[in-house]
């Protein structure tokens, strides 16, 4: 039985599931993933922000211009920056994460009782079944026109059962390659350096964007729960190298998170996922259009912003069965 787990533009297909069908199509949205929380004035985790204006149909004359808000990037966007603008959601050219586990659970492994987050402890995976598991991690890079295969050797058949939760353990670092423009005749491109951009296309590179906290780099909020998304609610937890959940700083003294290595995402699905002996396969599709890249104005201390930078943004996953 070949090709248990594959990605095609960019779709993960689980094929190695004998005689099984799944009939739910569910949205698994990491609406809080991305280093947009590392900017100086972070958005709230549940604030998705606007879709970026299409420069091919919208003329953008400058990054910031208080005399012409309708012709500036900050005037056309919202959520952050001068006059409340300066952030929007775009589509990356490339988007990547390192995947360690994918599966389904009967209880939320980060909060199995529903009343006590397991901060300082390891997640409780006792109710989980895994469709993919690789301790070393496998890179999954996808985007417009992209394709990637995850190894068959790390794939397995999920156990039959009724699962309210979809679970993913990935790296806390995201690989993003993107561009945005023209703005005032210039297009901005990602470089190899985080939170920097260039207008020189020959310097266009993939950047590693870390997720440091769910509220910004100066404070440690290591967990977020119950974020409402299409198809249910989602929770996420930062873990250290031993896969122990980090402890948040509840004193609000400005202590940053340290030691974060993994990100555990848990979707509490509005409709349970049912795996039975008649299920033949599970198709899992990653979506990054108008969502996987954050376009943000870069602050210039003492002056108005004159450039934008690209960062990682949310991605969604839908499940279909056959």
Topology readout:
Blueprint: E1 5-8, E2 11-14, E3 20-21, E4 26-29, H1 73-76, E5 87-90, E6 94-105, E7 128-142, E8 147-149, E9 161-171, E10 173-177, E11 179-183, E12 186-190, E13 197-198, E14 207-210, E15 223-229, E16 232-239, E17 262-275, E18 279-287, E19 293-297, E20 308-312, E21 316-321
Parallel strand pairs: 3-18
Antiparallel strand pairs: 1-2, 1-8, 2-18, 4-21, 5-19, 6-7, 6-9, 6-10, 9-17, 10-14, 11-12, 12-13, 15-16, 16-17, 18-21, 19-20
Q: Which sequence of SSEs, written as H and E, runs from N to C?
A: EEEEHEEEEEEEEEEEEEEEEE
What profile does the largest beta sheet have?
A: 8 strands, antiparallel
Number of helices: 1
Radius of gyration: 20 Å
Please count the beta strands (DSSP E, at least 2 residues each).
21
Indicate the percent of residues in helices. Answer: under 10%
Strand content: 35-45%
The first-to-last residue Cα distance is 16 Å
Count of individual domains: 1
Mean pLDDT: 79
Overall geometry comes to globular
Provide the low-confidence segments as ranges. 1-46
Structural class: mainly beta
